[in-house]
Specification:
- The protein is built from 16 helices and 41 strands.
- It is of the alpha/beta class and 739 residues long.
- It has three domains: 165 residues, no CATH class; 276 residues, no CATH class; 125 residues, no CATH class.
- Strand 3 and strand 4 form a beta hairpin.
- The termini are far apart.
- Keywords: Membrane, Transmembrane, Transmembrane helix.
């Protein structure tokens, strides 16, 4: 019998399927393991990226905290620089250059040390002061998130030949995910580079784009720009209706009187510009100041929907009492006594819908109190006196605070109990009283619960306002000094009924008065001010009590600034001491230009061009003639103009214009200062009748502008006061590390 195959081939093949399944399972497992490894690597990479991103974010936030501390220290440096400069200038004529330099550095160091030291040790800086500079990164104690300063190292304050060093500053920043970053550094507050060897009798003339002796106007709707310094004249500067002016890179913008921005106009000062003016007047327009604004009297806002932004330092240095000590105002003692409001710096809001942004200020100084301008309503029959208020920033609606309460007027008399009252009622009240006092200072005032006498008020003043067919008589409180006025404001506003009424009135005049709480802004306020932020009205008190220790310094500084302002409006220099008696009686044009010599050379009512290969200078005697227009010359070549009359800038001018009359800048035109070009242009020669001259021969001390290197011999000491020293460059981080 044939042998039977118990395991057919087909059956063997079928039995091979088990091994294939094992191979598939192994392959799937391998792929799964590989996939898991790849996914795990991706997850690890993601986590590492996330940690790195969080670490970087935490690090950069820590850097923000350092920047905030540097900004706060910058304010201290600016104050110390100002103090040291003023002290040197007060002793300028009695010291040599080395004594000025060492005196400047000593005062600078001591001022910084006094501000930064701890109360118990002059060799250590106060960490709590530096923490106060933190704003956006301020530590939230409840969550632990934010920046803090470590106290594990000694906070040493060390004076060196380079300046004052804050050693061992350690900033710890923790975020919401508990990531922590440490920044360790020393901070050098360096000595500024100020050269007191130069004389301050020469102005930094070549840094100017234009000098308008009489006045300067930006005319016609449209956009214009100026790059460089400007003297806007003894009669003031005006940005006309609808005009938009931007001024950049200006060491100085000076006008002896008001800088006015008219309806729908716009003025922007950028790049640390230094402004000096008697008044600022804004009428339904926009004003944006960045830099160093020094105002002798008031910033007044009227019209509808004005927008005001003040950044940098705003220094209203006017104060009637300290103005009497200024050398430049010794001939105005009677005027100061009679019209103290003209020498008292404040901010006054008379317009409706105004928006005032003070949140970006490093320093706000208002050295005076606001006044109600009742004198402007005087008539031949009645002379009014301005009324001092208890505020340095006031809104028109607040005038009601300073009216004598009706219950104190003619008490018990038939014609009493009213404020204001018409002229007839006033005459009847006077007759009814028979010579007795109109105001009773012992009556308890409604709400206050105190009498005028208890509030320190012992007098009043009348103001007669003419109306159709007669007059209205207002009775205002007369305060003996600022402290009484300031205290009265706080007492009146402290009554809830009065507060609500005044808050409602204020909202009709302003959309916002923005002062950020917790900001590093320094305030020196002679009077109170009201804030209106996010729908909430509050007040900020005057700092007179806080400033008691610095009162002598502040008083001296205010008088010094009066003299600086006067010198700039006479010869474009800072030091009033350096002016001769003859110069003090001249205007800017006369102190800069040898007019009679110029007219003698070019001829009366004529003009002469001084031509080079690539530039032209023009001297023109148009005092009694036509306006000189810059468009008459090639804009690529015209670099220097002196005119005895008026000038119209109707092209893109580059160089320097000096005009004895008025200067007008048309829409679409521009001015760009060019010191190097002007230094060359004033040396171009021309021969007339056998005599060879160049334009600098007709400038007072003309050759000095070239010998001093194109940028005026006053550079150095003057620059320190004008803000040309970059404060950021004086706050330097050293030995910086991050963990």
């Amino acid at each position: 019998m044939p042998r039977r195959n118990l395991f057919p081939l087909t059956d063997q093949k079928k039995n091979n399927k088990g091994s294939s399944l094992v191979l598939v399972i192994v392959a799937i497992a391998f792929i799964g393991i590989l996939t898991a490894i790849i996914l795990n690597l991706c997850l690890m990479n993601y986590r590492m990226k996330y940690m790195d991103l969080s670490s970087k974010d935490n690090f950069y936030t820590a850097e923000t905290a350092l920047d905030e501390i540097k900004a706060g220290l910058g304010i201290e440096v600016s104050d110390a620089l100002s103090v040291a400069y003023i002290k040197v200038m007060q002793q300028y004529s009695g010291t040599n250059s080395e004594e000025r330099r060492t005196g400047f550095q000593y005062t600078y160091l001591e001022k910084l040390r006094a501000e930064l030291r701890t109360a118990s040790d002059s060799g250590k800086y106060d960490c709590s002061l530096l923490k106060g500079y933190l704003k956006e990164t301020k530590l939230d104690v409840s969550t632990g998130v934010g920046a803090d300063l470590s106290d594990t190292v000694q906070p040493l304050l060390t004076a060196t030949e380079r300046g004052l060093i804050l050693k061992n500053l350690v900033i710890k920043y923790k975020d919401a995910q508990d990531y922590v970053t440490y920044i360790k550094t020393d901070i050098l507050l360096a000595f500024p580079s100020v050269d007191f060897t130069q004389t301050s009798t020469m102005p930094d003339l070549l840094s100017f784009g234009l000098v308008a002796n009489n006045d300067f106007t930006v005319s016609a709707a449209g956009t214009t720009s100026i790059n460089g310094s400007v003297y806007g004249g003894k009669e003031g500067m005006t940005v006309s209706d609808g005009s938009k002016l931007t001024i950049d890179n200006a060491k100085q913008i000076i006008t002896n009187k008001a800088l006015t921005v008219q309806t729908n106009g716009s003025l922007t000062l950028t790049n640390n510009t230094s402004l000096w003016a008697k008044n600022l007047l804004v009428d339904a327009s926009n004003l944006d100041l960045n830099g160093y604004s020094n105002i002798a009297d008031d910033l007044t806002i009227k019209g509808k929907a004005s927008n005001i932004r003040l950044a940098g330092d705003f220094y209203g240095f006017g104060n009637a009492a300290t103005a009497k000590n200024a050398l430049s105002l010794q001939g105005e003692q009677t005027a100061i006594e009679k019209n103290p409001a003209d020498y008292s710096s404040s901010i006054i809001v008379n317009g409706s819908g105004s928006n005032i942004d003070l949140s970006d200020l490093n320093k706000l100084v208002l050295s005076g109190n606001a006044y109600i301008s009742t004198s402007s309503k005087s008539t031949v029959a009645n002379t009014n006196v301005d009324v001092m208020l208890g505020e340095s920033l006031t809104v028109k609606s607040n005038q009601v605070i300073y009216m004598v309460p009706p219950e104190c007027i003619g008490q018990g008399m038939h014609n009493g109990g009213a404020n204001p009252m018409n002229g007839t009622q006033y005459s009847n009240l006077v007759a009814e009283l028979g010579g007795n006092e109109i105001v009773n200072y012992d009556v308890k005032m409604k709400g206050l619960g105190k009498s005028l006498k208890e509030m320190g008020v012992s007098s009043y003043q009348k103001a007669f306002y003419p109306v159709s067919g007669g007059s209205m008589v207002y009775f205002f409180l007369k305060f003996d000094n600022e402290d009484v006025a300031n205290n009265y404001f706080r007492a009146y506003y402290g009554i809830e009924e009065n507060k609500k009424r005044l808050d409602d009135y204020l909202k009709l005049y302003v959309d916002e008065i923005n002062i950020q709480e917790g900001s590093p802004t320094k305030f020196n306020l002679n009077g109170n001010l009201m804030k209106y932020v996010s729908g909430t009205v509050s007040t900020k008190n005057d700092t007179r009590a806080e400033d008691t220790g610095d009162r002598n310094y502040l008083d001296t500084k205010q008088a010094t600034f009066q003299d600086m302002f006067a010198a700039q409006g006479i010869k474009l220099i800072d030091s009033y001491h350096e002016l001769t008696e003859t110069e003090k009686n001249n205007d800017v044009f006369t102190n800069l230009v040898l007019e009679s010599d110029m007219r003698g050379f070019i001829g009366t009512n004529q003009r002469k061009e001084f031509t080079g290969t690539d530039m032209i200078s023009v001297l023109v005697d148009n005092k009694n003639g036509a306006v000189f227009k810059t468009s008459e010359y090639n804009a690529d070549k015209l670099r220097f103009v002196v005119a005895t009359g008026n000038v119209l800038i109707d092209s893109n001018f580059k160089g320097l214009i000096i005009a004895k009359g008025s200067v007008t800048l048309k829409a679409g035109g521009s001015v760009t200062a060019s010191p190097d070009d002007v230094a060359k242009a004033i040396q171009l020669e021309k021969e007339i009748a056998g005599v060879t001259k160049c334009p600098m021969d007709f400038l007072v001390g003309g050759s000095d502008y070239v010998l001093s290197g194109a940028v005026g011999a006053s550079q150095g000491a003057a620059d320190a006061a004008q803000g040309a020293v970059n404060i950021k460059d004086l706050v330097i981080c050293e030995n910086w590390t991050k963990e």
